[in-house]
Amino acid sequence: MGSSSNAAAPINNVDKGVDYANYFCTYAFLYHQKEMLSDRVRMDSYYNAIFQNKHHFAGKAVLDVGTGSGILALWSAQAGARKVYAVEATKMAEHARKLVKTNGFEHVVEVIEGSMEDITLPEKVDVIISEWMGYFLLRESMFDSVICARDRWLNPDGVMYPSHARMWVAPIRSGLVDQKKIDYDRAMDDWSHFVNETKTFYGVDMGSLTKPFTDEQRKYYLQTSLWNNLHPNQVIGKPAVIKEIDCLTSSVNDLLSLQANISSIITAENTRFCGFGGWFDVHFRGRKENPAKNEIELTTAPSEDLGTHWGQQVFLFYPSTRVSQGDNMTMNFSMNRSKENHRLLEVEFDCELRQSSGKSLPSFSKKFYIE
């Protein structure tokens, strides 16, 4: 995931210095860039999207938002771009300049160090390319900066790479649900022991802090989503799209709060519902007036083959519920940006399960944090 700045700063009143310390600084390290550059699904998708659609790049002006190491800018130049503006908010820009020079494209690629919201280009561009996707697509809120770039610098007939995105959820089974509950119980047992010892040996009763400690541990162990590489056989119900994004027309306001009402039929026999898995895919389609010759998809869905560094987000429900093939699960899904940190997300599921026999089970709901 490349790095840029926050286009929604006026909405969230974000301090740039704090935002840099919490977010951008990570992308200034080569080890982090290497992790992304080693993701074959990510790399192959962007490579194929560019080189199988050279007509979008040949002789054109390109803007790479959050260029990172500069790889997308270099590929754009190799595909025949007339000019590439590679914008990077961190000192990684220095490494990108070195790569551009050693690969012989300093006459085409101009690396600009600065936030997307603050820099000025000498011209409008024909293509905006960016790898802006965070965990569960929208964590990090980097798409805000892509929207800012689009609204300021994209020609009216320009194209976005990627052009579309979708968010998915599906019911899953996972042994992690039991392990996280065990970890939570151990943390609470340890706290109880700590309170008793502190009072016995030091004469101070820490019991008044039990509730805030409990809330803290519950959030950490039971309400924070997990990064995981799910196997397809852990998906026990039909996946459903909760959000579709057209990168050419979506606004920041469209993404501040998401709501969806969906249903999923359980496809596995006699298993446990342990929660939901969430993932995304993006597509390189060009635009209606100027379509891609070869549409490319990048998916982070559970796979038996190569996973991605994004993996999937797992939202665990405890206790788990026994389900059977043919049961119908309906769900109200909501996702909002965290009030404390606009790059993090808060997710809530309200679910009802109707068994194939027609019997309805008690509804259940849970709030999660993507941190």
Secondary-structure content class? alpha/beta
The helix count comes to 10
Distance between the termini: 16 Å
Tell me the CATH superfamily of the largest domain: Vaccinia Virus protein VP39
The first-level CATH class of the largest domain is given as Alpha Beta
The radius of gyration over CA amounts to 23 Å
Query: Under CATH, the topology of the largest domain is which?
Result: Rossmann fold
Beta percentage is: 25-35%
N-to-C SSE string, H for helix and E for strand: HHHHEHEHEEHEEHHEEHEEEEEEE
C-alpha geometry: globular
InterPro entries: Arg_MeTrfase (IPR025799), PRMT_dom (IPR055135), SAM-dependent_MTases_sf (IPR029063)
Organism: Solanum pennellii
Keywords: Methyltransferase, S-adenosyl-L-methionine, Transferase
Protein name: Protein arginine N-methyltransferase PRMT10
Provide a compact summary of the structure.
The chain has helices at 9-12, 16-22, 30-37, 40-51, 71-78, 92-102, 143-153, 176-202, 210-223, 253-256; strands at residues 61-65, 83-88, 109-113, 125-129, 154-161, 164-172, 226-228, 240-246, 257-265, 271-287, 290-299, 312-323, 328-337, 345-354, 364-370. By secondary structure, it is of the alpha/beta class.
